[in-house]
Amino acid sequence: MTSIEQAREQARVLEDAIALARAKHEDAEPRALAAYLESLVDELLAVRARIDAELGLSADPAPAASLWLRLRGGRVGDGRAPVHVVGKMLEALQRGTRQVAAFIELGTAVVHRIPKEIDLEASLDMLAFAKGSARIAVAPAVPQLRVHEPEPLADKALQQLVAAAVWAEGEGSDKTLDDLFPDVMVRRQVLSRIRDMAPGPRSDYAEVEFRGPVVAPVAQREAVIVTARGSSHASSFLRRHSQERVTYGGQLVAIDIEKEVFDLRHKHRRIRCHIPPTLHDAAKGAIESFVEVEGVGTFQRGEELPRRVAVSALRALTMEERARLR
Length: 326
What we know:
It is built from eleven helices and ten strands. It has about 325 residues and is an alpha+beta fold. The chain has three domains: about 5-55, no CATH class; about 65-240, no CATH class; about 245-325, CATH 2.40.50.140. It has a five-stranded antiparallel beta sheet. A five-stranded mixed barrel has the order 6-7-8-10-9. β7 (about 260-265) and β8 (about 270-275) form a beta hairpin. α3 packs across α5 (about 155-170). The termini are far apart. The mean pLDDT is about 85.
C-alpha cells in the first residue's frame, strides 16, 4: 500500500469514528460534543493536508494572508462557526487595525473620522474561510502603497494588535502596556478591541488563535492564543484606569452659564467639563472659542472618551493647533 493510500485509509477511519461518535451522542450538548470531537477533527485535517501535499496541492488556500484567525471550542468546530461570531471577530479586527494605523500615521488617536487615505490603506480583505475549527485568513485589501516602507500599514497595525493580545493573555504589567501604547485613548481603543475578540464567560467559542507573518515579529513564536483570561485582564485594566490624566482640544460650549456648567465639543462628542472657580472667568471668556483642557478624565469601561473631565488647566488654541484637530 502506497503512502497516499495509507493516508486515505486513515482519513476514512477517522471520518467513520467522527460519524459514529455524533450518532452515539446526538443528544449531547453541542459545546461538549465539539470539545469531545476536537482532537479527532484536528487529526483528520492533518491527514487531509498530508494527502493534498502528496498530490501536489496547496495546503494553504491563502498563502498571501498576513494573519490567520482560528476559533476553537464551544459552538465552533469541524470548519463551522456561528455567523454572528465570525462577523463580530472580523469587525473588531478591522476597526482595531484602522484605529492603530491612524495612531501610527498621526501620532494621536482618532475616535470618529479616520482620514480617508489611512482608512483605505488599513482596510482588510478576508481571503479564505478554511476548515479546522473555523480558520479565517485576512490580508491588506490594497497593495503596498509606500515602496520605501518595509511592510504595509495594515500589517504594522495588525502587529500592534497582536502585541496587545500577547500582553492581555500573559497578564502583563501596566507599565508594559504604557510603553506599547503611550497614548491614553489608543490604549483604551486597543484593549476594547481585544475584549471584542477574546472569548468571555458566555461566548460561543473558548479561544482565538492568531497565526501568520505578522505574529512572529512581536510574539517571538508562531502563534498566540487568547482565552477568557485575556479578556478579563483587559477589562481589569480598563476598570482600574477609569480615571486618567487627559488633554483634549475642542470648542468650549456653555450649558448653563449661571451654574457655570461647560462642555467641550471634541470632534463629534461632547465632554462635560468641571471647571474650578479659579478658571471660571477664563472659561466664560473662551465660550465658543477653541481651547485645550487638561485634567483628570472619568471613563466608562468600554468608552474611548471620558464622560467628564475635572479641569486643572485651560488655554486657547493657536490657528495651527485648530487646523490639526480631527
